[in-house]
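Q: For a teaching session next week I want to show students how multiple molecules come together into a single three-dimensional assembly. I've collected the sequence lines for a complex. Could you give me the predicted structure tokens for the whole thing so I can convert them for display?
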Amino acid sequence: MMPARFARWSLLLLAIILFAIWLPQAHNKLFEYRFGKTHLFYSPVAKTFIYKELLGEGHQFVYRDREGNNYSREQFETLIPFIYYKNMDLWGKLPLELDGNSFDIQTIRKERQVMELKPVELTEYNPRIQLFPLLESNPGRARLRFPENVFRPGDSLEFIDSDHNHPTPSHDESGDHDHPTLELTEDFSAALTVAGFQFPVTATYGQVSILKAFDAGYFLVDNQDRLYHLIRKDGHPTVWRVALPDSVKVRFIKVTENKRRETVGFLLDQENKLHIISYSTYQLIPLNLPGYNPDTMELKIIFNPLYRTTIYSDQENIYAVAMDKEYRVIDSFSRTMAMAAPRLPDQIRDFLSPFRLELRDPNSRYFAMQLIWNGNIAIFGSIAAMLLAVAYLRLRGYKPFSHPVDIALVLLSGFYGLIALILLPPDND
Amino acid sequence: MLLRSIFLKEWLKIRWFWFVALALNLGILVYLFIDIRHQFQVEHSEMIWYWVFELRRLLYTEIKYIPAITGAMLAAAQFAPEMINGRFRLSLHLPLRNELLVGSWVLFGAIMSGLLALIDAIGLYFIVLTWFPQEAAVSAVLTALPWFLGGWVAYFGATLVLLEPQPLRRLTYLGLSIAFMSILFLEKGYQEYDRVILVLSACALLFVPAIMLPAHRYRHRN
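A: Of course. Below is the structure for the complete assembly, covering every listed component.
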């Protein structure tokens, strides 16, 4: 009967989809291991790149430099004294003499900074309700605090009162200063317009937190792709136009306030070139990062009293670029991490089926049903699964090719199809 | 005319369960309202907005599994009685093609469970809108969409399990339904299913024709 056959095929297809999602997940749960993730640094002592990598199970770390010399853990830490400065202090190695300069613990602390950018932070990988609190950047007290309103970037900068969940609290007379959201909307929108901003706002970037060194407000992009910086100071708007070179169109900005007040964040342009935004002058410092892909790579910049080292990696390759304090490249290095080496459980997974469906993309907060091809090895797996399917049908008393759709499904999906066929065998109709 | 009679018969069969399910769904919505109100009584509004917008905390997870429970419950109300004393076999002898008969049963059940999911969605929207701007209310409904889809999957999954005559095959259907349901409740924050909900809904549609298989197997069992 045709409908019953269609019904069974739908079930087989459903089972194959579910196996393609869950069996690879089971593989990950069983066989994933922190094995092989590389930690890469530029040593200001040895003037070369050094790395730490896990080679086997347990804690079999290797500490090595680019030239292949091995070190003990203590030697390794001594090679990057600005990272392990507390150990250096404990071991009596401070103040540190390097390149004719002396660095004591205060100097090191003052110069240390880390900036990070991960793909998951980019707008397209990160659902975000477009409502933002604009903190008072001159709070006149020890800590920052959230205001009782957020702004809605759109045709104006509309402020909404959080106590009353309304742009203009209904019980307030206009002009009442207890809940001045209407006034805020007018003041801040007008200040932006006076500075040349053309509404609507097309993008809003800021760091929403009170646990930061200070508040740098928001960077807003107008409908002419121009960039503006907005802060709330003493309750009033302060707006600056940020001049961008003609070649730079904003793809993403990460605002990251640091107490050193040397930088205010990253600007990623639409050519995927990364820039550091200087604090106060907004000067863009383009970074020279060969092989960098912001959609797949996590990046960090480690600042110390002598160097800036950019390290970026995906699941397979890690890159590092060492720069001086003026961001001039001194040296660079890249390496395929030990974790990228193919492992037996992965090869078995790839053999069992031509594809898998990945639900989670590690670089995105959004779920996906990403179809991933397992490679040529799956051809053998699919043929094996098909032969087993024919044998199975025969065993159950069917003619070998009496169920061509079943056989085709197994051939196309490998062992997912075979398991589905065994769980949902054809009826004797 | 026959369809109307079938719908009427199904309605008579499940009405009390449906009203219990309605009471359960409304009860959870009332609880949700009280719970969010309580949050705003004990905590500053700007902090809650920060948790919700920035830290992605979901304040409405109370309703997460309700559509699924409702769906399974309605399927049980509709099909458990059919399984007693071979009544199902009797129904399959009505002067109507079996697919149409079974199809109209599940259509009725899917509409009735969908109606409850719709009430949940509207309730969720207006409850969130009471304390948050519209963006957050829309976001809440989008976030809850996979949970509502879970209601339908639970309904069709339970129907498959109940109509199937053979115990081992029932386990297979149960396993497949649970495997599908498990995809729908994995969120850590809001709107994470936005880009995949349509594909998941399309996959869930495979359950609809699948319902014909146990009916066919039931009728033609030895």
